[in-house]
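A quick aside before the break. I want you to see a complete sequence-to-structure record at least once, exactly as it would be stored in a machine-readable document. Don't worry about memorizing anything.
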Amino acid sequence: MAETKKRARKLRSAPQEKLIKDLNPITRGWATYYRTVVSAKVYSECDNILYHQLTRWAQWRHPNKGMKWIMRKYWRQIGDQKWVFAASETMTIRKHSMTHILCPYAKVRGNASPYDGNLLYWSQRLKNHPMLRGKLAKLLQRQQGK
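That is the input. The structure line, written in tokens, reads:
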């Protein structure tokens, strides 16, 4: 988040389009890096911080205007989404919460064990089955357990 703050501060006098172009890769990269952990609450907090940084950017650009005027100028409703920082319909700021969170693991079914003899289940789940090596393991993996 410090990187977006520095960038927004550096681009105080830049137009909204330039700010969006520069901040979107930072937001996307950070959110993509952390998408494999349970991060929905953190993404929500980051979106909140980003919103406040953008409001400060807009207030700095228009010190003699009120918040209502600033909000109408820079934030829009696009489709079902309200309060989107956007220059146009296609150029919007990317929120952290737009990143799909990947589950880094799949829960093991019931009381299954690699040593219970269910080779089909474990061959689909693991790349290297502890009881299978060589040709049979490769065939099971290549044929997706069939």
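Two observations worth writing down. The longest strand covers residues 81-85. Residues 106-146 form one domain. We'll return to this after the break.
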